[in-house]
Each structure stands twice: as structure tokens, then as C-alpha cells.
Design a protein that fits this description.
The protein is mainly α. The chain has helices spanning about 5-25, 30-55, 60-85, 85-110.
């Protein structure tokens, strides 16, 4: 297997993991399981942001800042969920987590 084949497998795996996490986060009814999947999704958004940044050249600051921005959205989502106990804030936190993962994934794959 060459490097391009490994990269395609990595991209497909990232897309599958992201899709499964999004479906689980929004369609699981049990609140405890939903929170566990939310935390996993937030961590996955941060991992995608790190992978985006580590794949950039050191002097490409704008793409690195965009990647860190998607990671920051994941951090904001977890802070919103931890600091607010209201159910509507959890829905906003889930939406921010989804934005972090989808945005980070699109930036990761399309770059």
C-alpha cells in the first residue's frame, strides 16, 4: 500500500466515525448515553482540529488558525454543557459539537 492509499483509508475512516457519532448524538433517547456520545464527539472534534493543524506547514498560520477555530468550537460546546444545566443549552452544545466535527472534517478532507 502506498501513502495515498493509506491517506484515503484514513479519510474514509474519519468520515465514517464522524457520521456514526453525529447519528448517535442526535438520535439516542437516553440522556446519559447521549452525554457520553456528546463527550466523545467533542474529543473527536478536538482530534480532528489537531490533525488539521499538524498537517499544515509551520508558516501557514491562516489554515492553522482556521483549524484551531474548529477545535475552539468544541471547547466552547463542552464548556456550555458543563456550566449550564438547562436542556436547551445542551441542545446548543450538541449543535456546536456537530459544527466542530463537520467543519473540522470538511477542512481536513478538502484541504
Amino acid at each position: 500500500m502506498n501513502a495515498l492509499g493509506a491517506m484515503v483509508i484514513m479519510f474514509v475512516a474519519a468520515i465514517v466515525v464522524s457520521a456514526v457519532l453525529m447519528l448517535l448524538m442526535f438520535f439516542i433517547k437516553d440522556e446519559q448515553k447521549q452525554k457520553v456520545v456528546f463527550y466523545i464527539t467533542v474529543v473527536w472534534g478536538m482530534v480532528l482540529a489537531w490533525a488539521d493543524v499538524s498537517g499544515q506547514p509551520e508558516n501557514a498560520t491562516t489554515p492553522q488558525l482556521i483549524s484551531w477555530g474548529f477545535g475552539a468550537v468544541a471547547v466552547i460546546a463542552i464548556l456550555l454543557q458543563l456550566l449550564s444545566k438547562k436542556e436547551d443549552k445542551f441542545a446548543i452544545a450538541k449543535l456546536l459539537s456537530a459544527i466542530s466535527v463537520i467543519g473540522g472534517l470538511l477542512y481536513f478532507v478538502l484541504q
